[in-house]
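Methods — Computational structure assignment.
A single polypeptide chain was analysed. Its primary sequence is given first, followed by the predicted tertiary structure written as structure tokens.
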Amino acid sequence: MHRKDIAQKTKLSYDKESDVLYINFEEPQAADDSDVTDEGIIIRLRANKIVGLTILNAGRVLA
């Protein structure tokens, strides 16, 4: 997939109340695995491919 395709398919959603940013690189879909970084970023995987990110405490992490 080319960068332009990824940019066009990327969806962002922010939950202000929970301060969580959801980034989906394709249509939102269930992940079959995930990893969590020390910064509170959840990397969502499906068939060993990154399908999205969930950024907890997004206001602090992205500041």
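Note: DSSP finds two helices and five strands in the chain.
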